[in-house]
Amino acid sequence: MHELLPITTVQPSFTSVLTDVEQGTIPYEDIWVSRYDPDPKRESYLSEHGKLRVSLDDHDRNLVKLTRREGSVKIERAPAQDHKHPPRYVLSSRNETSKLYFPAQSYADAFYANQASPHRITAFDIAPNEEKFAMGFLDGSIALCSASNVPPPRDRLSEGEPTIKVDLKERPHKSTVTSLRFFPSSKVLLSTSADFSLHILSANTASEADGIPLQPARTFQAHTRAVTDACIVGVGRTVISASADTTVRVWDVPSRQNTSTVWFNDGGVTSLALPSEDSDTNTAYAATLGGVYRLDLRARAEGEEGDGKEKIIESGASSLALSANLLATGSAKGVVRIFDVRAPGTPLHEWRRGWGTTVSVDSLCFLNASKLVVCTSDGMPYVASLKDGGIKVDAEIVGPDCYPARHARLSSGGALWTAADDGIVRRYDQW
């Protein structure tokens, strides 16, 4: 039986209220926070709410204080790392504490993040050099944005206001962009789409000279249904793709040839995961609607036994994440499981969060071997801690107001990036 984890919600305008009070725009304002703890008698939640007043300290007018006015839920300010980082906050209730991750920076383009009609981000990736990121959309278009040269958080009045202007945008696909992956050079981008194709695109910005930005340099076509995911193997001479046509295909990039194909008989392939860069490049993991498989990516000689796959988990998954020997799976019914790939028969941990089975797990991302980011369709992403032999909510990721954050990426510098249905990309600093 899976464990039910608690939920904490914070008024989305919390950071704007803090800024307004600190800058003297308003003398004070009340905000609401809520805590939902699992009911041990049944698979539901017991709610607890709190009202906090945000105001300036009577003696230190540079200090914003949070005073509890109603309920037992409270938020306390933790010491900031330095003046370059936003303040840190911890929420406590019934002897339980969890961190609150607020965006260190939000990236909102006036067109894509229009609050009246936001453009859902269907695919996202941050470049290895952290200088730019890419967003994909429902109409097959891709936007490339600089990750620098944006106003610091204190200079914006509210998170919904534009903070960036897209550097480049093109429409290389005919339908929804389903995944984006930067090559190690940060200058080339792999895209997949519901139009059955994969493209390798130049990801240079307008200030860079090489290639025609966001135009296909190579196209790979063999899938007969939507391509759902893709991964870049090693330095990028090989890529693999997953599709709703029940196949995983291995491609040789220089020749554009499909060198091998793995077929499945239990539904379309939903997600892929690769070991770390210094691990075996001949192994990958694929999730289908009916199970999770370990794949052998080597091209198979004619007459060689085996079909290139081994089913290691009997339950299907909608998302995967891999960290060393730990494999995380997320299901369309909201269940997250952690397995040891060396002995994957029984999950090490199994849990869900949310009401009923309508909350799907859209993205998983390991921050390290003991922390996993879980992005769900209810718009309440969180960090789960796997320490001490159990599961707990280490941090609530605050940002989208009821919009699902469907994509999470860990940058090479250790920052957490998310992209949501409100068209906004957010960067969070870990602590």
From TrEMBL:
Entry annotated with the keyword rRNA processing: no
Lineage: superkingdom: Eukaryota
Annotated InterPro entries: WD40/YVTN_repeat-like_dom_sf, WD40_repeat_CS, WD40_repeat_dom_sf, WD40_rpt, WD_repeat_multifunction
Family membership: Belongs to the WD repeat PAAF1/RPN14 family.
WD repeat residue intervals: 220-261
Gene3D superfamilies: YVTN repeat-like/Quinoprotein amine dehydrogenase
Coiled-coil regions listed in the entry: none
A GO cellular component entry from the record: proteasome complex
Protein name: WD40 repeat-like protein
Keyword Repeat: yes
Keywords: Proteasome, Repeat, WD repeat
